[in-house]
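Is KG4 placement plausible here? Inputs below.
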Amino acid sequence: MRILGIETSCDETAAAVVENGTRILSDVIASQASLHAEFLGVVPEIASRAHLELLLPCIQKALCEASLDLSHLDAIAFTRGPGLPGALLMGKVIAQTLSWTHSKPLLGIQHLEGHFFSNLLQTNGRTVPDPLPLPAVALIVSGGHTDLLHIRSLGKYHVLGRTLDDAAGEAFDKLAKLLRMGYPGGPLIDRASRAGNPGAFSLPRPTLPGSFNFSFSGLKTSALYLLKDAGFPIQSPKGMEKLAADPAQWRRRLGASLEDLCASFQEAIVDTLVQKTLHAAQVCSARSLFLGGGVACNRRLREKMKRACGRENLPLFCPPPPLCTDNAAMIASAAYFQLRSGKFPKKSSLSIHPSLPFINWNAEHD
Ligand code: KG4
Ligand code: ZN
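Reply from A.M.:
I modeled the complex. Tokens:
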């Protein structure tokens, strides 16, 4: 079964064709990062307009690379949410038009569920056991979400915890914005951290005892006050730009480097994510652990999670970095497993929703 996936929830315009939920026949992504970079964040109106311009060429390229045309497809799937409303709408309108004009079944997919399904895609000989070792715990960490899930079977999700304020990716992006490093901040902080000392600054690791929720806004505030107290002009973007790029000033004011701050900040996020996820796996008697979302690209997170899972003898699954960030192959994969289950979504499940929760499409299979 071949499915065309379409992803437009934020600032990546993507189209992909996936066979039987696991084999990527094509995977095309047009990043809008350069359009948003000067604003150090995503501008929703610019994102919607860019999706409108980029999506049809992406679909054309995805079909061409898969050596298929629309008539060969078994279904079309698009991201219903969560995401930016205007951006989601662009994907839906184009997916619906193609579905209607070519008489193909249409599925609306929850974006974060898609991030989980990235784990099932085969790349460079990497395969995932079939059936999956369930029950599992999954940590989906992106720019807008930090969700810890208990997965008892495919399509049956229980959210154990989520962030009460900033998502992990958002925290990275906000620190990078404060330091005038650029956008998206996660990869830049990851890179800078390699030259830094993770123990240079002692930053908070909010544990929220008795809960699987996260909170990252205090961490960002701590970094802000640390810089403010050291006399950094945090209100002045120009002043920060100058100072942030001056290693001598960092040494003089903080006795450490920008790289040290990035590494300490990253360590606080990674430690919190690893500790909570492993605890959840223990409580749920999980047989495996899955990662997904853009922050799962983080070198230190992958390293520390792997080490922790090794200690617990827990199989860890994590997509390769290009499949951790937003892509359309994960949307096509999720759609395949929904279709295969025989639970073809009702018409109402095609509506877009900026804060769409996880949907238990397999709820009665318990
Ligand atoms: O999943 P994603 O591509 O889009 C959303 O659904 O939000 O995630 C994007 C987020 C951004 O916040 C970005 O800074 C973060 O993932 N990110 C990273 C890394 N690569 C991307 N965060 C930390 N380390 C990275 N290497
Ligand atoms: Zn995402």
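Short version: The first strand starts at residue 2 and ends at 7.
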